[in-house]
Design goal:
By secondary structure, the chain is an alpha/beta fold. It has twelve helices and 13 strands.
């Protein structure tokens, strides 16, 4: 049994990490968040020490490392822009680290973290759970075992509706979240490059505060994608079903089904990490580079081979902010 500490206990993704720690038979000694709405801890680790001040959390963790019951693993569920700093903290604390995606916002941070891994003698891992989804594993095997010169035509559509709160939170600040492509799309970009090979072309057609549409060419795929957090982009069949999330991948004209099987993927990720088969931070480089290039791109408009939903009219920013590029 290993001891864990976790930062970001009040966050959206934290329950999946708490469940994974519990399901793998480990214990959570300490957790930290600026916000105190963490009653979820009672369902998993009611004896966990909780802190709303980082200095108090640091004091506890440092003391614990000098005890006979040290912290072995450090899990990170905090806002995207803080991941780099908390990975550094966890490694320097003397722990192995598990960080939620996106690992970092900028590719050069990965090189610096790899150097710190070597200095600390500990390892950092990232969550890339779609690589563990049975349907996606089967797709990768199909592509790998198929003709090497085969290039697939892929349409990716992902719309997950968010309210006005989104823009008032850190998620609505591109400097903190990385924007729509990073915040809701990075696991899809990782999946695509993992299955179809390295990126060869990266074109952005439309990008605004609530959507991004573009074209990605991989070694074995031509991908048109559309990602959005605006419910007005939902297709009629999704609205009629009173759903606020729509996800579909079309490969060579046929729908690729992978809507089920997501609930256990964080636990499976932890299981793989704890036995030394997890995804090291170097494996996140490709997807971090893809979203960084998208974030800094100048959209070309409706030219070339673009996703059909790219034609949807743009919506004004709720707070009047227009240019989201950095």
């Amino acid at each position: 049994m290993s001891n864990f500490a976790l930062v970001g206990a009040a966050g959206y993704i934290a329950p999946r990490h708490l469940e994974a720690i519990a399901n793998t038979g480990n214990t959570l000694l300490a957790s930290y968040d600026q916000f105190d709405s963490v009653g979820r801890l009672d369902s998993y680790f009611p004896d966990c020490s909780f802190f709303t001040e980082q200095v108090q959390f640091d004091r506890f963790c440092s003391k614990q490392q000098r005890s006979s019951n040290p912290i072995h693993w450090f899990s990170i569920c905090t806002p995207n822009y803080t991941h780099d700093a908390f990975i550094r903290y966890g490694l320097r604390l003397g722990c192995n680290v598990i960080c939620e995606k996106p690992l970092v916002l900028y590719p050069h941070n990965i090189d610096n973290l790899i150097e710190l891994e070597k200095e600390s003698g500990h390892q950092a891992y990232t969550i890339l759970q779609l690589r563990l989804h049975p349907s996606i594993v089967a797709l990768k095997e199909m592509v790998s075992n198929g003709p090497t010169n085969k290039v697939y035509d892929v349409d990716l559509t992902y719309i997950t509706s968010r309210g006005k709160w989104y823009y008032a939170s850190w998620k609505g600040d591109i400097h903190k979240s990385g924007g729509v492509a990073t915040n809701i799309g990075i696991h899809f970009y990782d999946m695509l490059q993992w299955v179809f090979g390295p990126v060869q072309q990266n074109i952005v057609h439309v990008m605004s505060h609530d959507r991004v549409a573009g074209y990605l060419e991989f070694r074995q795929a031509r991908v048109r994608y559309f990602l959005s957090i605006n419910a007005k982009c939902l297709p009629p069949n999704a609205i009629q079903g009173e759903k606020r999330t729509y996800r579909t991948v079309i490969i060579d004209g046929k729908e690729f089904e992978f809507s089920q099987g997501f609930t256990e993927l964080h636990t499976k990720s932890y299981q793989e990490i704890l036995v030394g088969r997890g995804f090291r931070i170097s494996e996140a480089r490709q997807c971090v580079e893809i979203v960084s290039q998208i974030r800094h791109a100048t959209p070309i408009g409706l030219k070339g081979d673009y996703h059909p939903l790219a034609r949807l009219p743009l919506e004004p920013h709720p707070f009047g902010w227009d240019d989201i590029r950095i």
